[in-house]
């Protein structure tokens, strides 16, 4: 308290000066309409700027929460879109009505990427969901923009995913415009590009065409983006194109993914196993 009194005493002339200046400004604003309007307009401008900055700072601190909410909403929408695509398939023959359980067989679980590789020949990534969340080896993994990979190993709280950027990983893919089916397989070089193999050179292929997961796939729902045709080449003594796709997923900036569960996959595999046994 004594220090405060000492400060006031030592700076009394300056404090009186500041007080008189404030009083003068207040009198001018009160008695002159022009300066009054100017003052209030200026003060409102700076108050608005301050509030905008404060709100931006608060929103920035909540980005993780907002992203998590958006990822959950995307998972719900993915399930809805997949069901609608299966129910109203564009290439289905007239009169075909899919079983409702078949149309709704894919479910999605949101997961966050906690570790990711892109610079190796065989890349993997780790997500923060495991067996405690219903994740099992063999499930597909996608992002908001396209195919990511396939679950390989699981612990209680984490899962290791074989990335599409893996030399042993292939996914059945279809070119949208030509309806030609092939396989997307990474050559082990640039993480932005992947090869599409086994596409007949007698089919017309268009640069810029989209490659999506095909219907001949039990791990991924049909219609999930893989990439777009970047270049097309063919050698005279070959019967297949050499197609390079630009991947739709940016693996260097991967944050949230969706683990895809085919609820009828077990039934399909059991049926195949019985067929093999009888052979």
From TrEMBL:
InterPro entries to which the protein is assigned, alphabetical: Cell/Rod_1, Cell/Rod_MreC_2, MreC, MreC_beta-barrel_core
Pfam families: MreC
Single Gene Ontology BP annotation: regulation of cell shape
Domain Rod shape-determining protein MreC beta-barrel core: 113-261
GO CC annotation terms, alphabetical: plasma membrane
Signal peptide, first to last residue: none
Alphabetically ordered keywords of this record: Cell shape, Membrane, Transmembrane, Transmembrane helix
TM ranges: 12-29
Family, similarity comment: Belongs to the MreC family.
Entry protein name: Cell shape-determining protein MreC
Organism of origin: Dyadobacter sediminis
């Amino acid at each position: 308290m004594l220090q405060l009194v000492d400060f006031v005493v030592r700076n009394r002339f300056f404090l009186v000066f500041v007080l008189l200046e404030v009083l003068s400004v207040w009198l001018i604003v009160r008695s002159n309409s022009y300066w009054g309007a100017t003052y209030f307009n200026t003060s409102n401008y700076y108050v608005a700027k301050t509030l905008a900055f404060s709100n931006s700072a608060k929103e920035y601190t909540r980005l993780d929460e907002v992203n998590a909410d958006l990822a959950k909403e995307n998972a719900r929408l993915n399930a809805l879109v997949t069901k609608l695509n299966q129910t109203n398939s564009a290439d289905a023959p007239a009169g075909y009505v899919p079983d409702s359980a078949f149309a709704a067989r894919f479910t999605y679980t949101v997961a966050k990427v906690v570790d990711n590789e892109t610079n190796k020949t065989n890349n993997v990534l780790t997500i923060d969901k495991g067996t405690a969340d219903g994740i099992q080896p063999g499930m597909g993994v996608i992002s908001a923009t396209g195919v990511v990979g396939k679950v390989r190993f699981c612990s209680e709280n984490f899962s290791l995913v074989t990335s599409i950027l893996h030399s042993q990983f292939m996914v059945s893919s279809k070119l949208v415009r030509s309806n030609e089916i092939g396989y997307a397989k990474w050559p082990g070089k640039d993480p932005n590009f992947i090869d599409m193999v086994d596409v007949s050179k007698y089919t017309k292929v268009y640069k810029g065409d989209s490659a999506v997961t095909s219907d001949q796939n039990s791990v991924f729902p049909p219609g999930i983006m893989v990439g777009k045709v970047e270049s097309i080449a063919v050698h005279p003594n070959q019967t297949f194109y050499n197609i390079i796709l630009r991947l739709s997923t940016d693996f260097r900036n991967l944050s949230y993914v969706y683990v895809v569960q085919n609820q009828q996959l077990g039934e399909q595999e059991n049926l195949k196993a019985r067929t093999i046994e009888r052979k």
